[in-house]
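Please, structure for the following, as tokens.
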Amino acid sequence: MFFDNAHCLVTDCGAVLKSDEAMSEYLRLLETAKKDFGLKMPAYVLLPDRALVYFVTPGADLHSVMGALGKNKTLPGYAAGHCKYKLLQPEKYSAALARFIHQAPVKEGLAAKPEAYRWSSAGQYLGANEGPADKDVVLKTFSEDPAEALARYSAFLAEPVPGKFWRPFDKNRDAVLGDREFVDAHSPHGG
């Protein structure tokens, strides 16, 4: 299911992130995995009961990436192997996935606005803070001009999102998201 430049959502339900210390350590581990495996990480959010991470792989098997993360003993209570993976067609789903990730803390009542949630890449996108997200992966889908791309993503992030646009990402199962041709080419089970 993984290939060069694969765009994937990883939902890690093995992460118990109940404190700032746990959130900080998990983010450090993500940054280490990003470097060690040559990944891009366009968007992320760390929630108390799970992490949502958008990775772009250089062909790395994300099971190995997340397994390596789980072997690290600096994150107490981490249960390796509790991840779901969604492979997605980037030109169709990249921006929607970033919005889904950035809106998660708002939807769960953890923040009033996406950029106000400390453990998310939303603040990095909107200029509120620095961080490890490779935001150009998503912003370039809006425009090659950085200022225009940011303005367009900000407007997109602020739009109300109908439930049917949440469901493909929110379902608790592995999946391939894209048009029929993409799904047929990348699904281990066929279309």
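The mean pLDDT is 87. The two ends are 13 Å apart (CA to CA).
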